[in-house]
Amino acid sequence: MSVLSDEEFSATVRSISGARGLPNRLYVDPESAEAERQTVFRNNWTGIGFAHDVPNAGDAVPVTFLGWPLLMLRDRKGRVKVFHNVCRHRGHPLIDKKCSGLAMLRCPYHSWAYGLDGSLRSTPLIGGVGVNEVEGFDRSRFNLVEVRSEVWFGVVFIDMSGVAPPLSERTDAIEARWPGADLARLVSGGDRAQFALTVECNWKLAVENYCEAYHLPFVHPDLNSYSPLEDHYTIAERHFAGQGSMNYKGNDALGGKPFPEFEAWPAEKREIAEYVAFFPNVLFGIHRDHGFAILLIPQGPARTEERIQLFYVGDTVPEDPAMASVIDAHARQWRQVFEEDLGVVAGMQRGRTSPGFDGGVFSPVLETPTHAFHRWTAEQLNG
Ligand code: FES
Ligand SMILES: [Fe+2]
């Protein structure tokens, strides 16, 4: 299936100086959104939630992602698992709200029950009143259908295709950039360190805006005053792209209390912070004293939910009551930056309905990350 014409494809993937951006219809049409779902999202590791959405064994939460009804749970061994949220009997969803303390998943329709490993454990009355088994019915053939999943940087990723290369093949290249960041030490800052934004644009515009610093002086004058455009560099790799800042001074420099830092963060990179979009839909930020992840959850072609979560190094920050107001201020600061982007991404979305726009062009210096994302997307769409 070729979603882009040959002409559109070659115009997008050619070298940046002569390249054109993806065509308007990829930002507005339901048909294009469906094509993306079947390629971009189905064939790649896609972020659907956070591991701390199910903090304890026996927790489960329903997640509808791009219309796919899923459920995420933590099993008895403490592992996060993702299943299709649908009973193998007559197809009723198993859960419709967050649950905790579960030993089983029991379907509300005819009460079939599944273990947290997905195995079908009981089929009440299947053989008639008082008879819970029936000749010829092999339970083991009707376990819940699991979706391949992995956790990285606190994010639960799924591979709907089931055949994508291991997630680490793609994330290793990001980790290699951050030799001092022991991601296993990142702990979610909890409820006060998370917020959600609804952005009135296609999810791709949120990625595109995130991975360039070009707009910094114009859209984020505050941020630009302490982390100016000239102190930024671009990152444009095969499966991720973004920007780095060489001028990150730490939370205390911004009026907060200092946060614990990664012990192994290299001294010569002390003021480096990086912001990368991991294609397709998760945006990461890393600093010597905190990280964040943003999940982009498309809600139709022209609207995207963003879930933003801040993480700290070790659990002293979230567990120290004296840090609560510091986390609040920190979350407010990031919220302000991301809210400043709401207007421009919505503006780009409106522009995508104009016959006077044909995908646009890029700054060959400042927008190599955006072009890398367009190239990646075009390749995914056209197989
Ligand atoms: S649909 Fe689930 S038990 Fe019948
Ligand atoms: Fe921005």
Summarize this structure as a short list of keywords or feature phrases.
383 residues; alpha+beta; Rieske Iron-sulfur Protein; Naphthalene 1,2-dioxygenase Alpha Subunit, Chain A, domain 1; six-stranded antiparallel β-sheet; 17 strands; 24% strand; binds FE2/S2 (inorganic) cluster; binds fe (ii) ion
Structure description:
The protein has eleven helices and 17 strands. It is an alpha+beta fold. It folds into two domains: 47-150, Rieske Iron-sulfur Protein (3-layer Sandwich); 178-381, Naphthalene 1,2-dioxygenase Alpha Subunit, Chain A, domain 1 (Alpha-Beta Complex). Bound molecules: FE2/S2 (inorganic) cluster and fe (ii) ion (FE2). FE2/S2 (inorganic) cluster is lined by residues 87, 89-90, 92, 107, 109-112.
Summarize the structure.
The chain has 383 residues and is α+β, with helices and mostly antiparallel strands. The chain is 25% helix and 24% strand.
- Small-molecule binders: FE2/S2 (inorganic) cluster, fe (ii) ion
> How many angstroms does the end-to-end distance come to?
7 Å
From the alpha carbons, calculate the radius of gyration and give it in angstroms. 23 Å
Number of helices: 11
> Helix- and strand-based class?
alpha+beta
Total domains: 2
The CATH architecture of the largest domain comes to: Alpha-Beta Complex
CATH class membership of the largest domain:
Alpha Beta
Briefly note the CATH topology name of the largest domain: Naphthalene 1,2-dioxygenase Alpha Subunit, Chain A, domain 1
Q: State the total count of DSSP E strands.
A: 17
Biggest β-sheet: count, sense, barrel?
Answer: 8 strands, antiparallel
Helix content estimate: 25-40%
